[in-house]
Amino acid sequence: MPTVSGRAMQVSAAGGAFQLIEKQFPNPGPGQVRIRVHACGVCHSDSLTKFGQWPGIQFPRVPGHEVAGIVDAVGPDVPLFQPGQRVGLGWHGGHCNFCPPCRRGDFILCENQLISGIDFDGGYADYVIAPANALAFIPADLAPADAGPLLCAGVTTFNSLRNSGARSGDTVAILGIGGLGHLAVQYAAKSGYRTVAVARGQDKAPLAHQLGAHLYIDSTTQDPADELQKLGGAQVILSTVTSAKALEWTVNGLAPTGKLIIVGAPDGPIVVSPFPMILGRRTVLGWPSGTGMDSEDTLNFSALTGVKPMIETYSLERAEEAFDRMMSGNARFRVVLTTGA
């Protein structure tokens, strides 16, 4: 099993530019798999690597945690994966199996969890070496460029909704129609919820309905909480936005026992009135992405129901341009690097 050479877009120091390098990718060690990358999504969380904002991150580092490709080589003690299989790698880059959360089977909360593209080199490259317990199988009818964003934005929204406690027919509101929100609307509608999209401006209404929303609320001309209460309140409000200010109304839009689930990281503290929380037994909680198996469920559900990300693709060499496009907020809606493999 030989080592292989390939390209990588590397960051040498916090805030530095991407550098195209040629590097050797070693053989996978015990419990590891080497993936030939076909596509890798460019996520806002990659800025944690680019700008050195993750505590303890070491440079040089190759970002990327929305990796779609095929198994190229398998290390010892990996009974499940074989060369040629289509696999994906997401934010969750492996778990230890021995900390208290792992012993309870809650691997996404592993105290020693590895993060792809932060703790080890990620998918802005031709190859990735990753722990086998982090991988997901990709269905045959999902293209790599479509699968990539589903391994982060997809699993985060799908997994939070399916674990929310909402039942078919319940009112579920999606706050924001962006990289996360445009997938969340699709998953909510395909899951049988009465899906309400909430965003700024009437210009987003046609897209919301195209994605499957049954109702659209323009937060610039309507009070979202009042509109949701006219429907009996939302059992779930899934927030995909980054503005903490935009969340202040949300608890008042919930039905009794309703949940505000936060998957988009707000830009500051969230102000929540305690009285609706207490009197209605309402809940505010966050949700991380998911394990490799959660990603696999997301991919299978997406293939089954036709959920797809809206993407803009760039070649690997254009990673700097692709990253800047993502950071601008103007991408519609996920940026994906392709390797040409």
The helix-strand sequence is: EEEHEEHEEHEHEHEHEEHEHEHE
State the fourth-level CATH superfamily of the largest domain: Medium-chain alcohol dehydrogenases, catalytic domain
Biggest pleated-sheet summary: 7 strands, mixed
Distance between the termini: 20 Å
Question: Which term fits the overall shape?
Answer: globular
Helix count, DSSP H or I runs of 4 or more residues: 9
CATH architecture designation of the largest domain:
Alpha-Beta Complex
Name the helicity range. 10-25%
Strand content: 25-35%
Number of domains: 2
Overall average residue pLDDT: 97
Keywords:
341 residues, alpha/beta, Quinone Oxidoreductase, Chain A, domain 1, Rossmann fold, 2 domains, seven-stranded mixed beta sheet, six-stranded parallel beta sheet, 9 helices, 24% helix
What features would you describe in this structure?
This protein has 341 residues and is α/β, with parallel strands linked by helices. The protein has helices at residues 47-50, 100-103, 144-162, 181-190, 205-211, 224-230, 274-280, 292-305, 319-328, and strands at residues 4-11, 18-25, 32-42, 67-74, 86-89, 127-131, 135-137, 171-175, 194-199, 215-218, 234-239, 254-262, 283-286, 311-315, 334-338. Strands 3, 4, 5, 6, 7, 14 and 15 form a seven-stranded mixed β-sheet that branches. Helix 3 crosses helix 4 (181-190) and helix 3 crosses helix 8 (292-305). The chain is globular and about 65 Å long. The mean pLDDT is 97.
